[in-house]
Amino acid sequence: MSLNDRVCRLDTWAYGRLLGELNSLLLSDPQEVEQVRQTMQKVFDLYNGPFLAKETEMSWILGPRERLRLKLLQVIKRLISFYSKTGRCREVIALYEKALGLDQLAEEYYRGLMQCHAGRGDRAGALAVYSNCRNLLHTTFGMEPSEKTAQLYQAIKADDQERLARICEACRK
Q1: 162 C-beta neighbours (distance < 10 Å), count
Q2: 136, 105 in Cβ contact below 8 A?
Q3: Contact at 8 Å (CB) between 19 and 43?
Q4: pLDDT in tens, 53-76
Q5: In principle, which of 63, 95, 115, 155 could form an S-S bond with 167, CB 3.0–4.6 Å?
Q6: Do 170 and 92 form a contact (C-beta atoms < 8 A)?
Q7: φ, ψ for residue 86 (rounded to 5)?
Q8: CA 64, CA 97: separation in Å to the nearest integer?
Q9: pLDDT tens, residue by residue, 42-52
């Protein structure tokens, strides 16, 4: 049995089509910033959180739920790269925050957010992001952030201008 997509609309199908459209836009002309923004907003509007989040008894849901989340994280990474190249720091920050909402234990998103805040000259914001990362990792796993994250923190804390100048070119434009 199958469903006819001309008669039935499934959010997961629409989500998949929008992700494909967004990926195509990101691979094509970087001048399509407004079209990227509109399609990105449609994707975010359609993704209302984990797939069938209230269904906890059915283990078959876990695979599709994780695939949908991972696809969104992959697109967010591409969007971060796209917006970084076009010098749109505000959008990059919003995307890192969106990524952290989907995966709050991924240090790479904390580092990216720290870099953007530092690149904009917001040391306090960058240090607050580190503090949130450190507290979450310590509370959840009883561990400290990675060496890479700690080194970035030390550079920001010490106001190492030479290193900070290389951190986030998009945020300096």
Answers
A1: 7
A2: yes
A3: yes
A4: 455 655 545 556 677 778 888 888
A5: 115
A6: yes
A7: -95, 5
A8: 23
A9: 777 766 654 44
